[in-house]
Amino acid sequence: MKRDQITRQLILKAALECFSKNGYVNTSLNDIVKISGISKGGIYWHFKSKEEMFVQMIEEEYEPWLNTIHSALSILSDPLEKLKKYGELFYSQIDLPVFKLMPESYWGEVGEQYRDRLNQCYSKDDELIYAVFTEAIANNQLRITDAKALTWIYISMLEGLFAELSLRSEKKDELVAYFEKGIDIFLEGIKRK
């Protein structure tokens, strides 16, 4: 890895630490300078703004998550099992720093040009789940045949449960059980009998 790439990764690692600890809004460039040991000028050499750094960090941290999902789902043949596994993997990521930052990336101070990049990043999940719902519909496994609506509702449900789980960490075990139950209720409700 070239020196520029090493420096960039060092900055992103420090940014992840700072954003995870303080949130996006409450993290200053000085915080990242302090943790990384890289000057502000050095940081600005690699990133135009704090926003760009935040989005780049999310994109790079999100990629391994997508690889995990693809690997886990590729060994399953039944689309309904894939959907259940996706839900289980979704809530199992609650403690990863990048996932704790997701609500801020949706509703935080990130500018529109960067929000588009974040949406592209997150839409990769949507595309994957849409394909699984399409497969289940083709296999005549579902009562509802609108893959787009199913995708939107399922992911929205998971994100809502995830937000609740991340906000109420004191009841984590209880909420994980609700998360699992929510997935089961949803999948049973759409399954062809």
Automatic annotation (TrEMBL):
The lineage of its organism: Bacteria, Bacillati, Bacillota, Bacilli, Bacillales. Keywords: DNA-binding. GO terms for molecular function: DNA binding. Gene3D superfamilies: Homeodomain-like, Tetracycline Repressor, domain 2. It comes from Brevibacillus fluminis. PROSITE patterns: HTH_TETR_1 (PS01081), HTH_TETR_2 (PS50977). This is TetR/AcrR family transcriptional regulator. SUPFAM superfamilies: Homeodomain-like, Tetracyclin repressor-like, C-terminal domain. Coiled coil: none annotated.
